[in-house]
Amino acid sequence: MADISIRDVRKSYGKDEVIHGVNLDIQTGEFVVILGPSGCGKSTLLRMIAGLEDITSGEITIAEKVVNHLEPRERGCAMVFQNYALYPHMTVADNIGYALKVAGMPTAERIEKVKQVASSVGLTEFLDRRPGVLSGGQRQRVAMARAIIREPEVFLFDEPLSNLDAKLRVQMRHEIRRIHNRVKATSVFVTHDQHEGMTLADRMVIMNKGTIDQVGTPEEVYNAPATTYVAGFIGSPAMNFLPGRVLASHAAVVLEEGSSLPIPSQAAQTMDGKLVQIGARPEALSLCRPGSGTLTATFEFYEELGSEGLHHLKIEDVQFSVLSENKMRLDEGTQIGVTIPQEALHIFDADTGRRIEISDPIHAIETA
Amino acid sequence: MRRAYFKNNWIAALVVAPQLLIIFVFFYWPSSQALYWAFTLEQPWGGGNEWVWFENFAYLLSDDRYWQSVRVSTVYALATTALAMGMALILALFADRQLRGYKSFRIGLIWPYAVAAPAIGLAFRFIFNPSAGVASYLNYAFPDFWDPIMNGSHAMTMVIIAGAWKQVSYSFIFFLAGLQSIPRSLTEAAAMDGARPMRRMMDIQLPLLTPTFFFLLVINITDSFTDSFGIVDTMTSGGPARATNLMVYKIYEDGFRGLDYSGAAAQSIILMILVISLTFIQFRYVERRVHYT
Ligand SMILES: Nc1ncnc2c1ncn2[C@@H]1O[C@H](COP(=O)(O)OP(=O)(O)O)[C@@H](O)[C@H]1O
Ligand SMILES: [Mg+2]
Fold it and tell me: What would the pLDDT profile of A25-60 be if each residue is shown by its tens digit?
């Protein structure tokens, strides 16, 4: 009913173009997370969907209707703002019921509806208070209630959890997912926090400086990042990168310091001599005796993470980390071996940063 | 707050002395003189002042002319304030809707406040002159439409417009600053909630301007009681038939034309009490009003 389609949308402020031709299709009832670092244009994109920002070129349709020139109120979207944007001079009840009041719903009916929605988010006792006396979490709930009460076709969230402390953030995240499962409205959720994105999303959209780098489920984005940018942004601790060159004669990627990482000879043939970036997630690696692994590194320092340990290493001048259950303490400067399983390798074109698929990853795991 | 400490108190004294001197010469000394005159009466044939307690005040309060002056002053103050604040609010609402370069015309709009009252009076005297000014065209089209020289309410209207023009800029700056300090996300949230621009203004912007509104109300009323002298003096000299004989102007008239120092002093004490109580209301109630966070 309310799928959203974004066709080659651009946005400029004066001469600066900040959104460079974005294409995206969002299905009805889907929960889509737009993820990217601060300043990459997430809010701008969301605000163009909402109607708070003009679309410089391109087309946005909601439920098959082009909305480019429609006012926000004609688009059927509700939005939760980062700073909540509660009306400070109105009570919680009036805040929640404002949209219904504007729409001309009779008072008695409105009050009933407000009570019902307030109780669904646990705000019943606070209906007479002003937002100023509420805690961050309570304000967040008011903002949610204000959006829910309209029963919108589309929910838009602009970093709604970033002003909360860590514990509350997780709690509200679950709350938002529960609400989504209940009301099943199409939702677009903007955040710069990858955990938030991974846990909430049906599909994720990774943005990079005004363009979309990848669209996919959280698993796809994690397992097969489309660019070095996505690979480095998703996953914590961040993916390791090493520069190298494909040599068909070795059927491997040969790193600068000389060690070689074998790849299927078929793939090596087709890209012989190509400069690449090797990516490997810290959690896919393990430590071993120097000389026995895939490559040898110099130990720098260790971080204890409770269930696991994170070893920070250096290969030539490149930072490298290994996350494993191995909690061995070492002296700074010690040589240590690292094992990189072939299926853990991600290969990216060194020039474009795009992923190079060497084989079907599932097939690779089976043969390993 | 940072404090400066001086090792020797006499340096501190030296630094503040000029300021204290100015305050003394231009405020405390005249005020105390006024107080003295207000409670005394000069002997008709010289020989010093006679202490008469509240006789000057009692005389004033039983004088119809004084009450007439209070009445026209009140009309002037309320009308000027309403007109100035109304205009200022409308201008500020327009300016807030992001006209490009509003910063430059914000400076343009503050200028009237910096223009001396007599200059404003002279300019408006020309504009409203029934036989030579801009208004003469009106009189040409509709004979006897406009005659501030003979008609009291015309004169009052003229003085009110000039006074409001002077005050509009000050209120404009505060209203605009108030509007700009309302987070944009609030009006955006209201837009998402379905409110049109007019509705957003009534439901969101104006209620959030309430503290600014009360602040300006007191400032404007105080200003129109005390700062109207130059305009009245240049435009109407209090006439015709005392129709624009505002309290400040009457003090000047009685004191310097009528040479009734005691009566004028008593009037200025009353005006001073009025202004002090307005200021008190300002500090006590308006400043402490709920500020939404
Ligand atoms: N009103 C504006 N005028 C000019 N530039 C803007 C405006 N709003 C945002 N930008 C610019 O657009 C880019 C994207 O901003 P935004 O969408 O807010 O990023 P994000 O939400 O991802 O942090 C930023 O470089 C920002 O400086
Ligand atoms: Mg943002």
Answer: 999 999 999 999 999 999 999 999 999 999 999 999
Beta strands A203-208 and A31-35 are: parallel
Ligand 1, atom 16, residue with closest C-alpha: A41
pTM over 0.95: no
- A78, closest residue in chain B (CA to CA): B192
Phi, psi angle pair for A347, to nearest 5°: -120, 130
Read off the pLDDT band of B160 (50, 70, 90). very high
Q: Are B113 and B165 in contact (CB under 8 A)?
A: no
Q: What angle do CA A340, A346, A348 make, to 5 degrees?
A: 135
Dihedral in degrees, nearest 10, Cα atoms A200, A204, A208, A213: 160
Class of the domain covering B64-289: mainly alpha
Taking the C-alpha atoms of residue A148 and residue A120, their distance in angstroms, rounded to an integer, is 10
Q: 3-state SS of B234-246?
A: HHCCCCCCCCCCC
d(CA B105, CA B109): 6
Kind of pairing, strands A309-315 and A260-262?
Answer: unpaired
**Which domains does chain A possess?**
4-231 (3.40.50.300), 242-366 (2.40.50.140)
Rounded to the nearest angstrom, the distance between the alpha carbon of A41 and the centre of ligand 2 is: 7
Q: Inter-chain contact B193–A83, Cβ cutoff 8 Å? A: no
**Kind of pairing between the strands at A335-339 and A286-288:** antiparallel
In this structure, are residues B176 and B163 in contact, taking their beta carbons and an 8 Å threshold?
no
Q: Which tokens is A115 given?
A: 């009570």
Q: Is the pLDDT of residue A208 over 90?
A: yes
Chain A positions in Cβ-Cβ contact with residue B195 (cut-off 8 Å): 73, 98, 102
Quote the ipTM score: 0.83
Rounded CA separation A212/A206 (Å) = 6
* Residues of chain A positioned with their CB less than 8 A from the CB of B293: 88, 132
Report whether A157 contacts A49 (CB < 8 A). Answer: no
Q: Which of B75, B283, B47, B260 is nearest to B164 (CA)?
A: B75
* Ligand 2 ion: residues within 5 Å (CB): A 43
Compare CB distances from A73 to B194, B208, B210 and report the shortest one's residue: B194
- Kindly report the backbone phi and psi dihedral angles of residue B241, in degrees, each rounded to the nearest multiple of 5, phi listed first: 50, 45
**Residues in chain B within 8 Å Cβ distance of A103:** 194
A198 Cβ contact partners less than 8 Å away, ≥ 6 residues apart: A204, A218, A222, A234
Q: Are B161 and B202 in contact (CB under 8 A)?
A: no
Where are chain B's structural domains?
64-289
Chain A residues inside the 8 Å CB shell of B199: 102
CA distances from A86 to A51, A95, A96, A201, B186 (A): 19, 7, 9, 26, 7
Site to probe by mutation for ligand 1, drawn from A9, A13, A19, A47 as the one with most ligand atoms within 8 Å of Cβ, is A13
Give yes or no for residue A263 CB within 6 A of ligand 1: no
Shortest alpha-carbon distance between residue B186 and chain A (Å) = 5
C-alpha distance from B222 to closest chain A C-alpha (Å):
28
Longest dimension (CA), chain B: 80
What the block records as the tokens of A248 is: 């068909």
